Amino acid sequence: MYAFPAFPEVKLWPDSLEHLGIAANELPRVRDRLEKRIVSMGDNFDGSALPVRGLYELCDDDIPEPKVIRVDGVQKLIVLTNNIHRVGFLATDEAKANSTRLAMKLAQQATVSIVLRSRNAFRLAALVASIESDLQKQKTRSHHLVR
Amino acid sequence: MKGIVWLASYPKSGNTWFRMFLANYLRDGDQPINFDDLQSGLLASARETFDQLVGYDSGEMTFDEIDSVRPDVYRYQAEHATETPYCKIHDAFILLPDGRPLVPLDATACVLYFIRNPLDVAVSFAHHHGHDRFDRIVRAMGNAEYALCGSPMAQANQLRQKLLTWSGHVTSWTEAPGLRVHVVRFEDMKRDSVEAFGGAIRFLGLGEDETRLRKAIAFSRFEELKRQETCSGFPGKSPQARSFFRKGEVGSWRGELNPAHVAQLVADHRDVMRRFGYLGAREQPVF
Predict the structure, then answer these.
(1) Which chain B residue has its CA at the smallest distance from A84's CA?
(2) Cα separation of B34 and B231, whole Å?
(3) What's the pTM value of the predicted model, to 2 decimals?
(4) ipTM (interface predicted TM)
């Protein structure tokens, strides 16, 4: 299963932009009368479709530092099905069954983790570092397995 | 009973306490329920539920656009409920610009309205926001434009909720035409729990089982809620607050508000305070 790129832009609220040191008033609005802004990804956008290796579910917590928790078995499937976009709008039983089948296939293919992040502090760099570190560990592990 | 049962209140007025009681009463188990069980109830301002049911990202809608759709969301929830839907709501009972009520009468069974001495609300509400600058809260409680999650500069985890003034909130619900409303005072829930909780249960048509009632009251007493929050946290706690369940006392304003705060609150809310027994004959606070 592959992840397909969406649009080369990110939509952010002024409070997030402020944390990132980006001036909101220089950016286009998502819609008139809405303060949410569009940030172009410019050259930092990869347009290629890539096989899915891992999924991270972001969850708020009271912990100070981000923490990655790997989930397995049925819990993996629960995280995936809880995050299927607008699953309630699948009209037929066949479509629902197909959605579940795809989730199971994805669960077999990719690792699934919960990333706990502080709800009280903006720690984006630490959050990115924790995910990158986890990906690196996975890469090393799979490298050893191949050898 | 068909339609949504609204559990309505200004914030920090005993709504969550009652929901814990109700969940324990309905479960009728041998152990107190935990906060996770509470999450299964409806929350009128739940952003995720709105997004799921509408199929559109509320983060890309204006506050007024969201409000214009909310009545249909509640209708849908009422129509598709398999058992009585109890829905917590902090919004005042307001009319939308086109004249429709935010809370649709045709999707409503009845309303339990929780009220608490505004002097105690001010103290608890300030701590909920993580500070003790009571003058700000006193001003907010007298501001008809005041709303929860109403900043246009950030996306809150809940939808905007217009509260009106504290008095405006109370009268919006208790005087709304066409609603069947039962008012529960926080002070009565503390002082005479069996009568207050029992009255609410009878209003909801949930029977007269006193053993079950007393057990549910015991399972949802303040010390139990505090214990659970200390052990595993409470999902409804604001990020700024130290805890959601703080003291749960009647009259804690006496040690925290200064005379100017009290005078302002009484001046702003005199009529409603008097009507619900919070002011005596000589305008002295009762609790």
Answers:
(1) B52
(2) 11
(3) 0.89
(4) 0.83
